[in-house]
Amino acid sequence: MTVFVKPMETEADLLGKAYVHWKSWHEAYAGLIPPEYLDGFTLSRCEAIARKWQDDLLVAKDGERVIGFCGYGGYRDDSLSDTGEIFSLYVLSPYYGTGVGAMLMNAALARLDRYPAVALWVLGDNGRAIRFYEKQGFIPDGTEQTVSLGAPLREIRMICRR
Q1: Three-class DSSP labels, 18-49
Q2: Confidence (pTM)
Q3: I want to staple 154 with a disulfide (CB 3.0 to 4.6 A). Which of 18, 34, 91, 124 is the partner?
Protein backbone atom coordinates (compact mmCIF):
# COMPACT_ATOMS: atom_id res chain seq x y z
CA MET A 1 0.00 0.00 0.00
CA THR A 2 1.55 3.27 -1.18
CA VAL A 3 -0.90 5.88 0.06
CA PHE A 4 -0.43 9.61 -0.35
CA VAL A 5 -2.60 12.70 0.07
CA LYS A 6 -2.81 15.49 -2.48
CA PRO A 7 -5.20 18.22 -3.62
CA MET A 8 -7.93 17.08 -6.01
CA GLU A 9 -6.57 18.34 -9.35
CA THR A 10 -7.39 16.06 -12.26
CA GLU A 11 -10.52 14.64 -13.87
CA ALA A 12 -9.45 11.21 -12.62
CA ASP A 13 -9.19 12.61 -9.07
CA LEU A 14 -12.66 14.14 -9.40
CA LEU A 15 -14.24 10.93 -10.69
CA GLY A 16 -12.45 8.92 -8.00
CA LYS A 17 -13.67 11.32 -5.33
CA ALA A 18 -17.23 10.97 -6.63
CA TYR A 19 -16.99 7.18 -6.45
CA VAL A 20 -15.62 7.27 -2.89
CA HIS A 21 -18.38 9.69 -1.87
CA TRP A 22 -21.08 7.39 -3.28
CA LYS A 23 -19.57 4.11 -2.06
CA SER A 24 -18.65 5.35 1.42
CA TRP A 25 -22.13 6.77 2.04
CA HIS A 26 -23.61 3.37 1.27
CA GLU A 27 -20.99 1.64 3.44
CA ALA A 28 -20.94 4.00 6.41
CA TYR A 29 -24.57 5.05 6.61
CA ALA A 30 -26.38 1.74 6.06
CA GLY A 31 -28.60 1.40 9.12
CA LEU A 32 -28.19 5.09 10.01
CA ILE A 33 -29.90 6.76 7.04
CA PRO A 34 -33.13 5.36 5.57
CA PRO A 35 -32.43 3.05 2.60
CA GLU A 36 -34.80 5.04 0.37
CA TYR A 37 -32.62 8.12 0.86
CA LEU A 38 -29.41 6.18 0.22
CA ASP A 39 -30.96 4.75 -2.97
CA GLY A 40 -31.33 8.33 -4.22
CA PHE A 41 -27.70 9.13 -3.41
CA THR A 42 -26.39 8.04 -6.80
CA LEU A 43 -22.96 8.06 -8.37
CA SER A 44 -24.09 10.71 -10.87
CA ARG A 45 -25.28 12.90 -7.99
CA CYS A 46 -21.88 12.50 -6.33
CA GLU A 47 -20.15 13.46 -9.57
CA ALA A 48 -22.27 16.62 -9.78
CA ILE A 49 -21.33 17.44 -6.18
CA ALA A 50 -17.64 16.89 -6.97
CA ARG A 51 -17.85 19.24 -9.96
CA LYS A 52 -19.65 21.92 -7.95
CA TRP A 53 -17.26 21.95 -4.97
CA GLN A 54 -13.70 21.40 -6.19
CA ASP A 55 -11.80 23.84 -3.97
CA ASP A 56 -10.18 22.92 -0.67
CA LEU A 57 -10.52 19.23 -1.29
CA LEU A 58 -7.88 16.58 -0.65
CA VAL A 59 -7.83 13.05 -2.00
CA ALA A 60 -6.00 10.04 -0.61
CA LYS A 61 -4.70 7.71 -3.29
CA ASP A 62 -3.35 4.19 -3.18
CA GLY A 63 -1.29 4.26 -6.34
CA GLU A 64 -3.64 5.74 -8.94
CA ARG A 65 -6.87 4.84 -7.11
CA VAL A 66 -8.69 7.43 -4.99
CA ILE A 67 -9.54 5.75 -1.67
CA GLY A 68 -10.64 8.72 0.44
CA PHE A 69 -11.20 12.46 0.49
CA CYS A 70 -11.54 15.40 2.85
CA GLY A 71 -13.17 18.79 2.28
CA TYR A 72 -12.24 21.71 4.53
CA GLY A 73 -12.44 25.50 4.85
CA GLY A 74 -13.67 28.30 7.07
CA TYR A 75 -16.66 27.58 9.31
CA ARG A 76 -19.86 27.92 7.28
CA ASP A 77 -21.91 30.12 9.59
CA ASP A 78 -21.38 32.94 12.05
CA SER A 79 -21.98 30.90 15.23
CA LEU A 80 -18.23 30.30 15.60
CA SER A 81 -15.74 33.00 14.73
CA ASP A 82 -12.14 32.32 13.76
CA THR A 83 -12.85 28.61 13.30
CA GLY A 84 -12.11 26.22 10.47
CA GLU A 85 -14.32 23.32 9.48
CA ILE A 86 -13.93 19.80 8.18
CA PHE A 87 -16.89 19.56 5.79
CA SER A 88 -16.42 15.93 4.82
CA LEU A 89 -14.04 13.05 5.39
CA TYR A 90 -14.71 9.66 3.81
CA VAL A 91 -12.55 6.59 3.26
CA LEU A 92 -13.47 3.33 1.54
CA SER A 93 -14.19 0.60 4.10
CA PRO A 94 -11.23 -1.67 3.18
CA TYR A 95 -9.01 1.20 4.36
CA TYR A 96 -10.68 1.66 7.76
CA GLY A 97 -8.07 1.43 10.50
CA THR A 98 -5.10 1.80 8.15
CA GLY A 99 -4.27 5.43 8.95
CA VAL A 100 -5.69 6.84 5.71
CA GLY A 101 -8.36 8.86 7.55
CA ALA A 102 -5.73 10.26 9.91
CA MET A 103 -3.52 11.21 6.94
CA LEU A 104 -6.41 13.12 5.37
CA MET A 105 -7.33 14.79 8.66
CA ASN A 106 -3.73 15.83 9.40
CA ALA A 107 -3.30 17.27 5.91
CA ALA A 108 -6.55 19.25 6.20
CA LEU A 109 -5.69 20.50 9.70
CA ALA A 110 -2.31 21.67 8.40
CA ARG A 111 -4.10 23.71 5.73
CA LEU A 112 -6.39 25.16 8.43
CA ASP A 113 -3.48 26.17 10.68
CA ARG A 114 -4.52 29.84 10.72
CA TYR A 115 -7.55 28.87 12.83
CA PRO A 116 -7.19 28.26 16.58
CA ALA A 117 -10.08 25.78 16.41
CA VAL A 118 -11.61 23.45 13.83
CA ALA A 119 -15.16 22.08 13.99
CA LEU A 120 -17.09 19.34 12.24
CA TRP A 121 -20.57 17.83 12.29
CA VAL A 122 -21.21 14.09 12.62
CA LEU A 123 -24.34 11.98 12.91
CA GLY A 124 -24.93 11.39 16.60
CA ASP A 125 -25.44 7.65 16.04
CA ASN A 126 -22.25 7.22 13.98
CA GLY A 127 -20.11 5.72 16.72
CA ARG A 128 -17.27 4.69 14.41
CA ALA A 129 -16.84 8.24 13.10
CA ILE A 130 -17.15 9.79 16.57
CA ARG A 131 -14.43 7.49 17.94
CA PHE A 132 -12.19 8.36 14.97
CA TYR A 133 -12.68 12.10 15.48
CA GLU A 134 -11.99 11.77 19.21
CA LYS A 135 -8.67 10.06 18.38
CA GLN A 136 -7.89 13.07 16.17
CA GLY A 137 -8.43 15.48 19.10
CA PHE A 138 -12.06 16.49 18.52
CA ILE A 139 -14.55 16.59 21.40
CA PRO A 140 -18.31 17.19 21.36
CA ASP A 141 -19.09 20.77 22.38
CA GLY A 142 -22.73 20.11 23.30
CA THR A 143 -24.19 21.69 20.16
CA GLU A 144 -26.67 19.60 18.20
CA GLN A 145 -28.78 20.10 15.10
CA THR A 146 -31.33 18.07 13.20
CA VAL A 147 -30.77 17.34 9.53
CA SER A 148 -33.22 15.80 7.12
CA LEU A 149 -31.71 12.85 5.27
CA GLY A 150 -34.87 10.94 4.48
CA ALA A 151 -35.78 11.27 8.16
CA PRO A 152 -34.85 13.75 10.88
CA LEU A 153 -31.38 12.80 12.14
CA ARG A 154 -29.38 14.29 14.99
CA GLU A 155 -25.92 15.68 14.31
CA ILE A 156 -23.44 16.70 16.98
CA ARG A 157 -20.71 19.30 16.61
CA MET A 158 -17.19 18.36 17.60
CA ILE A 159 -14.33 20.82 18.01
CA CYS A 160 -10.56 20.52 18.08
CA ARG A 161 -8.91 23.47 19.85
CA ARG A 162 -5.22 24.00 19.18
Answers
A1: HHHHHHHHHHHCECCECHHHHHHCCHHHHHHH
A2: 0.95
A3: 124
